[in-house]
Structure formats: structure tokens, C-alpha cells
Design brief:
single chain, 294 residues, mainly alpha, Arc Repressor Mutant, subunit A, 2 domains, 13 helices
């Protein structure tokens, strides 16, 4: 790059007053001898003047800085959604029946103690789904929520209320069952812990989801009775009380039924499906209930 090109490149800075003192003196000395640069300088000065005139005609909103700061400090959509979810969970924790928390812990503790004293791991498979089913069947509806009418009248969708409650209660039951399983490592080798957890997780998920769905339609007491009946019917040995022909006919059916309750992945999938149906049912029926109240 020759010397003249260097002066041309610095002309915009000179026109804007951005050169150092010694650079400005060199530029002025060059301008005295270079007509081409003097013409370019006039062009740059005209452009600068026009920019200043245009800028003076545009005024920024008085609250521009405040709005920019609010946007910079505003939480992201994901952060805002997490805050709203945490707020909803905290609010619904106060509306779940208080006696449910110690009652579930007491029943699970008794079941764990019986399992430990008897040395029969199968008992934890038996008790965990029953505790969870009774808990979820008691989390929603006028009989469990004295402020149910206010709940339906709030902007929060009923299905979100139900989702928050079942999240709290099911997570609580999971923690109780996991604590019981860890305690029972005193009886079983550590490498069987995963099998132990799957053994109660599948039935717990499906039975509690079924009890919740039924409670929305036929009430808590009836739903618990049906869920418990479906769970308990697999345990008796019917061949000991039935005649051989009847026992032979029922055995394949009972074996298939027991195999169904012994398929944890299938039960977890069905449990999730039933929970989705329950949420959909609550969301669909809530507008009709509000209209009826009005």
C-alpha cells in the first residue's frame, strides 16, 4: 500500500475527528498538496452532515433503556416454565390431604419391617403397589379438596393441577419404596437391587394409575376396592379349594394373569397410558363442571 492510499483510508477518520494530533497534522499537510484528497474530504464531510441531520430527526423512546434492561434480565422461556412448575407444585402440596403423607410412610415402614423379619422379599412386591394405589386415588375431587370449586375457577387448567398432585404423591411413594429397597439390601445381594426395584415399580405404576382414573369416575372408595381386588386376586392358590376340573380350566387363565402382573415394562407403559387418559378426562370434564356451577 503506497503513502497516498494510506491517507485516503484515514480520510473518514479525519472527517469524524478521530485521528490523533500528530496524524491530524500529517493529514492537513497532505491535503494542502493533494486536490484529490481534498475533494474526497468534502464528500466525507457531506456524508457526515447528512448522517447527523438524519439522526437528529429520529428520537428514541424515553423508556428504551429500561425496556432493554428488563429484557436482558428477564428469565428465558425454559427458566420461566420451571419457575411456574415449581410454584404450582408448592401450592398443590398444601392441598393434598395431610394425613396421606405419614400414613403412606407408616404402611411402607410396616411392610419393610415385615419383609425384613420374615426374610421374604416378595412381601415388598405385595405392599408397595397397594400403598401407591390408595394414595393416588385420594388426591383429586371434591371429597379430597374442600376448595375444589375455587380450584376449578382459577386460570390453572384442572389437568395441570392433577398432574402436579400426582407428581408429588407418586414421587413420594417412589422415594418410600426406593428407601425400603435400599434397606432390604441387608437381605439380598446388591446386584439384585435392580430386579427388586423393577419387581414393585411396574405394578405400582399401573395399579396406582388405574386407581386414580377410576376415582375420577366412581369415587375413591370404589376405585380402591376394585384396584385392590385386581391386585389380590392373583395370590390365592385356587387349586387347593377347587375341584380338579375347574382348577384345570382356571389355571391357564390365572397363570396368564400372574404373568401380566410380572411384566414390569408392560405395566409401566400401560400405567403411563392410563395417566394420560386420566389427565385428558379431567381436562375435558372441568369446563362442564364450571358451567354447571355457574
Amino acid at each position: 500500500m503506497n503513502e497516498h492510499q494510506g491517507y485516503e483510508d484515514r480520510l473518514p477518520l479525519y472527517a469524524a475527528g478521530q485521528l490523533e494530533a500528530h496524524e491530524r497534522a500529517e493529514m492537513e499537510q497532505h491535503l494542502q498538496a493533494c486536490a484529490e484528497c481534498r475533494a474526497d474530504l468534502e464528500l466525507w464531510r457531506a456524508v457526515g452532515t447528512q448522517v447527523m441531520i438524519s439522526s437528529s430527526q429520529v428520537s428514541a423512546p424515553p423508556d428504551l433503556a429500561e425496556r432493554a434492561l428488563r429484557r436482558l434480565h428477564a428469565p428465558s422461556p425454559l427458566h420461566r416454565a420451571l419457575l411456574q412448575a415449581a410454584s404450582l407444585l408448592r401450592a398443590q402440596a398444601y392441598l393434598v390431604r395431610r394425613e396421606m403423607w405419614p400414613a403412606s410412610a407408616l404402611l411402607m415402614g410396616i411392610g419393610t419391617l415385615v419383609t425384613y423379619l420374615s426374610g421374604k422379599i416378595e412381601f415388598i412386591y405385595f405392599i408397595a403397589p397397594l400403598v401407591a394405589a390408595a394414595s393416588l386415588a385420594s388426591i383429586y375431587g371434591p371429597e379430597h379438596d374442600p376448595a375444589s370449586e375455587l380450584t376449578l375457577a382459577t386460570p390453572t387448567s384442572p389437568w395441570k393441577v392433577l398432574l402436579a398432585r400426582l407428581t408429588l404423591v407418586h414421587a413420594y411413594n417412589l422415594c418410600l419404596a426406593l428407601a425400603a429397597s435400599l434397606f432390604l439390601l441387608l437381605l439380598i445381594p446388591p446386584d439384585l437391587l435392580g430386579k427388586l426395584i423393577l419387581g414393585w415399580l411396574g405394578p405400582m405404576t399401573f395399579l396406582s394409575a388405574l386407581a386414580l382414573l377410576l376415582s375420577l369416575w366412581i369415587g375413591t372408595g370404589n376405585s380402591i376396592a376394585i384396584a385392590y381386588g385386581l391386585w389380590l386376586v392373583q395370590f390365592p392358590r385356587y387349586e387347593m379349594v377347587l375341584n380338579p376340573s375347574t382348577s384345570a380350566a382356571l389355571t391357564p387363565i390365572l397363570d396368564a394373569y400372574r404373568q401380566f402382573w410380572g411384566s414390569p415394562l408392560l405395566l409401566i407403559g400401560l400405567g403411563i397410558l392410563v395417566l394420560v387418559i386420566a389427565l385428558w378426562a379431567v381436562g375435558r370434564s372441568a369446563p362442564r363442571k364450571i358451567c354447571a356451577q355457574i
